[in-house]
Design a protein that fits this description.
InterPro entries: ChrR-like_cupin_dom, RmlC-like_jellyroll, RmlC_Cupin_sf. This is Anti-sigma factor. Residues 7-107 form the ChrR-like cupin domain. It holds the Pfam family Cupin_7. The protein has no helices and ten strands. The termini are far apart. It is mostly beta strands. A hairpin with a 4-residue loop joins strand 2 and strand 3 (43-51). It has a single domain, classed as Jelly Rolls. The chain has strands at residues 18-22, 25-38, 43-51, 55-62, 66-77, 80-83, 87-90, 94-100, 104-109, 115-116.
C-alpha cells in the first residue's frame, strides 16, 4: 500500500469543471470534477457535481444506492427540496430525478453506475 498521503489528496480548486457526458449523452448545464476514480471499474465513485440554474438530470436508478451532500445552492430530488448543508442517503434501487432551479454544487458518492430509466 502506498503510504504517501499526498498521493490521495485532490486539490479541487486546481481541477477544471468538465461537462457531464455519460455513454455519449451530454447533460447540458451539469459539470463534474472527479475526486476518487476506480481503475478496476473505469469510473469515478466520488465526484463533485455542479448544476447551473435550471439544469436537470433525468429519472434514474441507483442499483447500489448513493450518498450526497449539498455544498452550495439547492436541488429537488424526488419530491424533496434539499438546501446547502443537507445530506441524503438513498438505499439500493432508489429511483429519482434531480433538478436545480437556482443552481447547486453537490458532493456525490455512488458505488455503482446509475441506470437512466
Amino acid at each position: 500500500m502506498n503510504t504517501n498521503i499526498h498521493d490521495y489528496i485532490v486539490k479541487t480548486e486546481q481541477k477544471e469543471w468538465q461537462p457531464l457526458i455519460e455513454k455519449g449523452i451530454h447533460y447540458e448545464g451539469i459539470f463534474v470534477k472527479s475526486l476518487k476514480f476506480d481503475p478496476e471499474e473505469n469510473r469515478s465513485t466520488t465526484i463533485l457535481l455542479k448544476f447551473e440554474p435550471g439544469a436537470s438530470y433525468p429519472y434514474h436508478n441507483h442499483p447500489a444506492g448513493e450518498e450526497l451532500f449539498i455544498l452550495e445552492g439547492s436541488a429537488h430530488i424526488a419530491d424533496a427540496h434539499l438546501e446547502k448543508g443537507d445530506y441524503l442517503y438513498t438505499p439500493p434501487t432508489f429511483k429519482h430525478s434531480v433538478t436545480s432551479e437556482n443552481g447547486c454544487t453537490i458532493l456525490f458518492i455512488v458505488p455503482e453506475e446509475v441506470e437512466i430509466l
